Amino acid sequence: MPLPARGIDLGRVAELELVPEGGVGEAWLIDAHGWSPGLPDPRPVALPRVDVGALTVEEGDSGTRTARFPVSVSGRGTGSVWVFVQNADGRTYTEHAVAIEPGQREVEVPVQITGNTRWSFDARRPVLAKAVGGAVVGRFVNRLTVPNDDPLPTLTATPVTDAVTEGGTLAWRITLSSAADSNVTVQGRAVAPGGVELSTTDVDETWFRQRVSQEEPLPSRPLSSTRVSVTAYFTPGEVNREVFVLTAPDEQAEPAEQVRFDLANLQPGANTVTVVGTVTDNTP
């Protein structure tokens, strides 16, 4: 029953009377005031929320075992997320597709930990989550921590050439007692040797400048009065490196001179090794 577009104020209608004009039959009255085509307005639905937790696992000395990394879920409903766990190599990630079920409160993501007896820095492996559908991610990143439980390698030093004439190269081999899984830096500054000491003008100028910043060779002075140092960098798996001093000839008659370095791993608790070299005059 269409209503006229004008002339009736529907907000003030108090009574409606239907008068039949035909024979026997049925009539339906539908109150559709305010009706508009389409589906009803959707009601907002809270999606389940995912938060990445943190986990610390002991490394152990051997074998590979699987730990369960915690990912908490709050709210209701179903959804899915991707969880990315960094592998032990520090460069690649393992991906896990995780489905969230109604009422689920935690997702356990398997991660593998391999133990050994090689020293390394504490491993801190990032874990990240990304929503795929039907869920939101709150804390999207955290980490798996595997503390180092192995002793630091000890150092030894062996002379390669510890006595030269002016212009020669002093060299020592630095050896780790065992290979490490992380980079190892061994460094030592020049120390007064107790006798006549090699000076800044007794070594190659380029060698000196490469090992000390914002200092000049002149005026000539003992090496131990500068910040010059020698360094050995060990990459994972390496056990032998060399440090050297490149000396420079001159025209002055000089007694035999010495240089000394006390070297140690930069990590706390490392042992120290001492290397000493002697340089003799090459003038007639």
Quick overview of this protein structure:
The chain has one helix and 17 strands.
Notes on the protein architecture:
The protein has one helix spanning 205-211; strands at 49-52, 55-56, 64-74, 79-86, 93-100, 106-114, 123-133, 136-137, 141-146, 155-161, 163-165, 169-176, 184-191, 229-234, 240-246, 257-265, 272-280. With 284 residues, the chain is an all-beta fold. It is elongated and about 145 Å long.
What Rg, in angstroms, do the CA atoms define?
39 Å
The fraction of residues assigned to DSSP E strands is 35-45%
What's the count of strands? 17
Q: Return the average pLDDT rounded to an integer.
A: 90
Ends distance: 129 Å
Question: What is the element string, with H for helices and E for strands?
Answer: EEEEEEEEEEEEEHEEEE
* Backbone shape: elongated
* Alpha plus pi helix count: 1
User: How are the strands of the biggest sheet laid out side by side?
Assistant: 2-9-7-4-5
- Helical content class: under 10%
Largest sheet: 5 strands, mixed
Low-confidence stretches: none
> In terms of structural class, how would the helical and strand content be classed?
mainly beta
Descriptive key words:
284 residues, mainly beta, five-stranded mixed sheet
